[in-house]
Specification:
Order of helices and strands: EEEHEEHEEH
Strand content: 15-25%
Number of helices: 3
Low-confidence stretches: none
Number of strands: 7
Number of domains: 2
CATH class of the largest domain: Alpha Beta
Helix content: 10-25%
């Protein structure tokens, strides 16, 4: 029979002050009834510190970013509030990653094959474009494609 059966919180011998390390690497604090608490009554410490820094509750979609990447370092100087997961992704993107940024304008540009066609700088997945697919073919590959198309049309 367990030694601490029925004893909760500070009365339980296994109590560690309500501060635990979650399996995802973040620190949880036991604060039942808090608006950020989960069903067990635990709140992520970094979100609590972020609210104290702002002096208001976090808005829907706001994310707390750890500047040095250490999830257990919840010092206010190490935390930064970003307005969405898209903006948070920018903080973690690899060097040289050139996909479209969340508020970046998608300008029209001229196709690089000199066909005179305009296209958007980024496709719908945010990948950069410089030409329309099929416009940058070599003369040899274009000839093969034309030959295949005309033989298909005759049959």
């Amino acid at each position: 029979m367990p030694r601490y059966k029925g004893q909760t919180g500070a009365k339980n011998g296994a109590w560690k002050g309500g501060r635990v390390l979650a399996s995802n690497g973040y620190i949880l604090l036991r604060l039942p009834g808090h608006h950020l608490a989960d069903v067990r009554g635990y709140v992520y410490e970094h979100r609590l510190v972020a609210e104290q820094m702002l002096g208001r509750p976090l808005l829907l979609g706001e994310i707390t970013h750890h500047k040095n990447g250490n999830k257990t370092n919840n010092e206010p100087a190490n935390l930064e509030i970003v307005k969405s997961s898209a903006h948070h992704g920018i903080e973690h993107r690899a060097v040289g990653f050139n996909r479209r940024l969340p508020e970046q304008e998608n300008k029209l540009l001229l196709c690089s094959c000199n066909c005179g066609t305009y296209l958007f700088r980024f496709d719908r997945w945010g990948r950069p474009r410089t030409f329309i697919t099929g416009h940058n073919m070599t003369a040899k590959s274009a000839g093969r494609l034309l030959k295949a198309a005309t033989s298909h049309a005759r049959s």
